Amino acid sequence: MKPSSMYAALAQQLSVSAILAHPKFPAILLAYADRLLAMRRGERLMNQLLAQREREFLGFLLLCQHYAHLEGGPPPTLGRLAVSGLGSARRVAAFINLLRISGFARATPDPDDKRQRILEPTQRLIDLHRDWTQAAFHQLDRFLETPLLEWHLATDLAFHRRACLIGAEDIFNGTSFAPGRFPLVDFLTPHRGGHLIAASLAQALCAGGQMAESLTIKLPYGKLARRLGVSRSHVLNVFAAAAEKGYLETGDAGRRIELTENSRADLLGYFAHELSFIGQNAVRACDPSTPLDIAWLSK
After folding, report:
1. pTM: predicted TM-score of the whole model, two decimal places
2. Coil, strand or helix at 115
3. CB count, 10 Å around CB of 288?
4. In the chain, what is the straight-line distance between the N-terminal and C-terminal CA atoms, in Å?
5. 275 near 22, Cβ under 8 Å?
6. 201-217, pLDDT tens digit by residue?
């Protein structure tokens, strides 16, 4: 089998349909959700800064513009981040300032233009994204007949950069994770802690490594709020709003959540899509014949 054909076959093993049909999917999703939540447990500052979709994407865009700069593209600047459409110029500037104060980013004068400052992610932000990648790769290798991705991440120092840049264009040009595909998750993720709330629901659905037959989830609000580093009222408000939209029902004084069939399908489909997206782009990054196009990031 030719190298490109081999990588195409590996990518097919990580398609959304293959992941959803895999007998180990419930156990793999449980382990992935466990790891995501463990990474953020007790990290109140990190959860406040990054656990919201717009901010997560901005932090990732800063990382990708930095990686593209290392490949010969222009450096990240506040102006280049502000035209991303991920928020108003004021909101983007405020968020970057928070990243700098918290030690996730730094700014240095541009040697070619004293009016401009170059932004750069610190090792703390790079490690955060690398740890998330490693968590995904560790589980994705369980879908493959021959584990591959975690080994590449551990042995090739440039692999994380290449994998991020190959996948980033689909994210920021709206061809992946486009709103409307997974209504419950689309509703949750703009809220602070939304992605982790979705991970907590998926974790409960796959408790014990088996897909739950019941749509009833026992997930006390107080416990969830402490896990995410947010207030109990915030979690209550998010679930109350989701109930108003018809995505779920709540009961037993905040100790029980009743999903709909569609909402369960949303959660499972979203995380299958997330793992597939990460995995297939990582396989493309493994293939030396895959071109690294950073022109769109250089605008």
Report:
1. 0.89
2. strand
3. 8
4. 38
5. no
6. 999 999 877 787 778 88
